[in-house]
Amino acid sequence: MTYDKHRYEPFAVAVDLAVFTVREGVLEVVLVERGEEPHRGRLALPGGFLRPRESAAEAARRELAEETGVAGGFRLDEVGAYSEPDRDPRMRVVSLAHTALVPHLPEPRAGTDAARALRLPYAEAGPLAFDHDRILADAHRHVGALLETTPAATAFCPPAFTLGELRRVYEAVWGTALDPANFRRKVLGTPGFTVPAPGPARLTGGRGKPAALYRAGPATRLHPPLTHPEGPRS
Amino acid sequence: MTYDKHRYEPFAVAVDLAVFTVREGVLEVVLVERGEEPHRGRLALPGGFLRPRESAAEAARRELAEETGVAGGFRLDEVGAYSEPDRDPRMRVVSLAHTALVPHLPEPRAGTDAARALRLPYAEAGPLAFDHDRILADAHRHVGALLETTPAATAFCPPAFTLGELRRVYEAVWGTALDPANFRRKVLGTPGFTVPAPGPARLTGGRGKPAALYRAGPATRLHPPLTHPEGPRS
DNA sequence: TCAAAAGTGTTCCTGGTACACCCATGA
DNA sequence: TCATGGGTGTACCAGGAACACTTTTGA
């Protein structure tokens, strides 16, 4: 239980961010090109070190704003800690991985740190620096589980959204097609998940019957959960 | 992304352990009495700092052996990271909380560090040092969720166990009574959860029909999950 | 012979899946 | 008028909950 703070090489604590968005029915993730060694020029998850008086959540929000231009209005969840001794060759770094779910990214402004950020479809997020491939895979699994038990899917949508938009979020993250009729009943039958939004109906893609608008409801957990077909099956 | 390792006060990284066991149908947790300031004499979760070349899991297993005498043969799961700046008054400490599920604790030997360890029913685990009340509550919730989707309950049982013993684990962790008949069918109907163990039947408590023995099966996830009554209801 | 726990059978009912069908809009 | 997506209805079926009942032991 004793600890001499100068006896050991210091640890650094970092946050790594898997920033997800859904565009045109495709799950995308934000990556940055590394500007320095190690792994210069390779793609990595955005992230950075905790400052002396920051919690992990605060550091995550700050780094997200700095590196990708996303400022507030997103959902942040903890994925896990990565603490293997040699995961960063420079020094001992313990990373706290988070997911950030954002409705839509403003295009990064040139000249800022955010200019190095790019969006890629999750399926094409190639080999990444450090152990970020593993972190990204864990984060994706984590988001899939969040959609089952929490209203996290609404974090991908604008403030008012149609049930079709919400369904496409689930389909993009889970990679499976869902029955629109059954999805509708499940969502509306889950108390607090969505509430009807006032205002006129909206045309989703131009064609088809205009859809009613909903907003995110007060629930933080989904009862019953929205299980995806693959779950009980595999 | 740059970081000068000597520019800031160093961080310390620790593991905190919520060590659970089920005795006589009661969920118990292992606590230690702090031998030094801060919070000298108060109860706390066992834990300690990561050594320079240890991962969190390695540190957790080492600390568990040192502080409670539990050596190997237990299940370890990650709960989350606690990173608020002032959670430890001595210095900046980021704690990685874990749960350890053990079938039965050997009585701690006097004269070792483990002598300060004690078991308490979870419900009576009073106010703890630091933010350990919150960590313990999170850990308990985490174990409850693990029982639904993983075979974690077998970690509380000896190598060969009866379905009645397994059911009492669920009842102790969830705090609810379960129908023995339905529980039995659910467990046996979940592939890979349990496999019949050779050998004679065992008397659980002396009275009643002798029960068949089972061992933990090869599954790491439960399909379908064992949902508890409170889940979909509340 | 009684209590207690294991184990089996059965009924009821909820909730999920699949799919047919109608509605409202743009092209 | 056709294609497209929103929205409703419904039949089927698996799985969970509740509970009666038999079996096998110790006291």
TrEMBL record, chains A, B:
Pfam families: NUDIX, WHD_NrtR
Keyword Acetylation: no
Residue span, Nudix hydrolase domain: 10-142
PROSITE patterns for this protein: NUDIX (PS51462), NUDIX_BOX (PS00893)
Alphabetically ordered keywords of this record: Hydrolase
Keyword Repressor applies: no
Region entry Disordered, spans: 197-234
Any GO MF annotation of the entry: hydrolase activity
Name assigned to this protein: NUDIX hydrolase
Taxonomy of the source species: Bacteria, Bacillati, Actinomycetota, Actinomycetes, Kitasatosporales
